[in-house]
Every structure is written in structure tokens, then in C-alpha cells.
Specification:
Blueprint lengths: L4 H4 L9 E8 L5 E5 L6 E6 L9 E5 L10 E6 L9 E14 L2 E2 L2 E6 L16 H13 L8 E7 L1 H18 L5
Parallel strand pairs: 5-8
Antiparallel strand pairs: 1-4, 1-6, 2-3, 4-5, 6-7, 6-8, 6-9
Length: 180
């Protein structure tokens, strides 16, 4: 029996401090891959219209649910490009809250727990300012050529991010009570 990455993979024993992230998009690519909710496979949603590249590895936290009817997004900082559908233990350090087409679309910011080049970061406030500017700029601008608007709010710290992770786990349990 084939497993579905959203429903059959654990979010991790140490959540909300550390979570299991499933990477959809490696950093430094223009390909926008998304989890196909029916099959559990990745689908190429589109090639980003602009000449921008994802600044971090991008994915989701399994068994979470958000207002946009998707699992909770996660940005995993690492010195390497992590391949799609790879499970990565990620230490939660903050959240970038944003509105995408008027809908809340939080992005949990985490560091790859087993990458010593970033594992020492414990809160988004410790990140170099340039990294935060790069993430903000990417998400504000990557849909402009599609005539879509994205508003990035202020970055929030680890405590706020962990609250969001907890809430998305509870929301998943309410939405999918038979997946427990």
C-alpha cells in the first residue's frame, strides 16, 4: 500500500520545536512543484515567470492544515539544495507571515537540524539580515509577472512559529479525524 506524504508521514516526535519537513522545491530553482493532494505525487505547477530562484528549500509539514486548505508551508535553510520529496528534520526558528491573494499563507522558517552550518540558529532574529531580506523580496516579487499580489508581514520569532505549528496540527486533526 502506497503512503501519502501529507497524511501518512509524521510531523515528528519533537513538534513543535523540531518537525519533519517534506521538501517540494529545492533552493536555487525556478520550478514550482506542489504536492498533488489526490495522488501524493509532485506536480509541476509552473515555472516561475520571473528570473528569480527559490532562496531556500521549500516544502510542507505533514499532518498539518491551514486556512488555504493546504498543509503548513516550511522554508528550510541549509547550505545544500535538498531534493524534492526528501524528509528533513527541521528546527523551527520563526515564521514569515504573508497574505497571498488576500489569504493568510504562513511560512514556517526552520534550519536543517543535521546541517551544522545552520543548526546553531535558534530564532529568526539571529539570522543575517540579508537572508531575511532575500526571503521577503522573493515572496513579494515572484508572482508580480503573473499580476498577483503577495504581502509579506514582519517576521515573527520561534515562539509564534511554534504556536502556528501547534494550531495547524490541531486543525488537521479536526479536518481529518479518521487519519489519527
Amino acid at each position: 500500500m502506497r503512503q501519502h506524504p501529507w497524511h501518512d508521514v509524521s510531523y515528528g516526535e519533537d513538534a513543535p520545536e523540531k518537525v519533519m519537513g517534506i521538501i517540494e522545491i529545492p533552493k536555487n530553482t525556478r520550478a514550482k512543484y506542489e504536492l498533488d493532494k489526490d495522488s501524493g505525487m509532485l506536480i509541476l505547477d509552473r515555472v516561475i515567470y520571473s528570473s528569480m530562484y527559490y532562496p531556500t528549500n521549500y516544502g510542507f509539514i505533514p499532518q498539518t492544515y491551514c486556512d488555504d486548505e493546504d498543509p503548513l508551508d516550511i522554508l528550510v535553510l541549509s547550505q545544500i539544495e535538498i531534493v524534492p520529496m526528501c524528509l528533513v528534520e527541521a528546527k523551527v526558528i520563526g515564521v514569515m507571515q504573508m497574505l497571498d491573494g488576500g489569504e493568510m499563507d504562513d511560512k514556517i522558517i526552520a534550519v536543517a537540524a543535521n546541517d551544522m552550518s545552520v543548526a546553531h540558529f535558534n530564532d529568526v532574529s539571529e539570522l543575517p539580515e540579508f537572508w531575511k531580506k532575500e526571503m521577503r523580496n522573493f515572496f513579494q516579487d515572484y508572482k508580480k509577472l503573473e499580476n498577483k499580489t503577495v504581502e509579506v508581514e514582519e517576521f515573527q520569532g520561534r515562539d509564534k512559529a511554534m504556536e502556528i505549528v501547534k494550531q495547524s496540527i490541531e486543525d488537521y486533526k479536526k479536518k481529518f479525524p479518521n487519519n489519527q
